[in-house]
Amino acid sequence: MKAVASHQYHGVRPPSPTPATKISIPVSAGGGAEAALLGKGRYKAWALVAIALLALWSMFAASVTLRWSSGDLAAVPWDLSSPLLDDLDPLDGTGRSRTVQGAVDMVPAGNTRRVKILVRPGVYREKVTVPITKPFVSLIGMGTGRTVITWNARASDIDATGHQVGTFYSASFAVEADYFCASHITFENSAPAAPPGAVGMQAVALRLSGDKTMLYRCRILGTQDTLFDNIGRHYLYNCDIQGSIDFIFGNARSLYQGCALHAVATSYGAIAASQRSSASDESGFSFVGCRLTGSGMLYLGRAWGRYARVVYAFCDLGGIVVPQGWSDWGDRARTKTVMFGEYKCKGPGASSRQRVPWARALTYEEVRPFLGRDYINGEQWLRL
């Protein structure tokens, strides 16, 4: 996203995961046990007990069964109707992998069924890519404090061809496939924080380049350029995202609902950098009911693209927000084309008295399209 300079490559080969960690790969079972139980009148009471036990089981296991219908529509990402199966490989029903990438590799190319990858507790030190040929993958951790995928690449690292990897390929975990789900997992880039004025220090923890992606109760940790929200429609619910400079950036159309945004800046920084480049571009970031905490002094958003679009609604903004609120990326012409807005936010960082004049205090009618899952066409692919 920004200029880079040479830096010695420091990520050669990941150590093996903790020996005790395992990844089991179940395929969704058909049928709806919950609906079947409730359909038999005399067993309704027992059905309710069974469903409650399933929910309790899912809580203690720190994971839920995810089932997504084949095809493009009617996704059901959080479904307790079928139990999670251990040790079931999508090809022959037997295998386990000791790495996350190994588990992803076992998903057949052109897959059309929801494949659930259960990631056992452990710290997985590896770079992982879910390629475009492998949609419908669900990654289920055992809690953000117990299941961690981490690597330490930076944009200025040198690859095998002698070239810098760049921001795009610095990601510890990259999603290029559609219909990806993740829950109860930490994605981390553990590269050291960039000192003031340094270049080539962008270090992406998670890159989302597929369409129709959902993250639930995930933690995304880094400093500069933590979450590359690249392209596609994405829904992040109850997630924790940490960074310092532009730590949510890209050209996606994404809804962040109930997320905790935690800054670790030592001086100045920014939360969101939208790359929206035209008035007809439907991309932008909507933060609804989120909470901003941390250190440093941060802009709510920066105009990476000439038509950047970022909205905060019903958010709790800590005292680390710069009074001006927003940055034009050093290009005054962008103040005429960006859409930076706030609606009914609270907290010490929500004061509008010194906001830049080209930011908008939105009305309900103006903010309404950004408030719900309709913003990401969720009615077509996402049902909770």
UniProtKB/TrEMBL annotation:
Its principal location? secreted
Give the subcellular location: Secreted, Cell wall
What are the protein's UniProt keywords?
Aspartyl esterase, Cell wall, Hydrolase, Secreted, Signal
**Record EC number:** 3.1.1.11
Q: Name one GO biological process term.
A: cell wall modification
Domain Pectinesterase catalytic: where?
Answer: 92-378
Domain of life of the organism encoding this protein: Eukaryota
Q: Which GO terms describe its molecular function?
A: pectinesterase activity
UniProt pathway annotation: Glycan metabolism; pectin degradation; 2-dehydro-3-deoxy-D-gluconate from pectin: step 1/5
Question: What reaction gets catalysed by this protein?
Answer: [(1->4)-alpha-D-galacturonosyl methyl ester](n) + n H2O = [(1->4)-alpha-D-galacturonosyl](n) + n methanol + n H(+)
* Family annotation (InterPro entries): Pectin_lyas_fold, Pectin_lyase_fold/virulence, Pectinesterase_Asp_AS, Pectinesterase_cat
The record's listing under PANTHER family reads: ACYL-COA THIOESTER HYDROLASE YBHC-RELATED, PECTINESTERASE QRT1
| Family indicated by similarity | Belongs to the pectinesterase family.
Q: What is this protein called?
A: Pectinesterase
Organism of origin = Triticum urartu
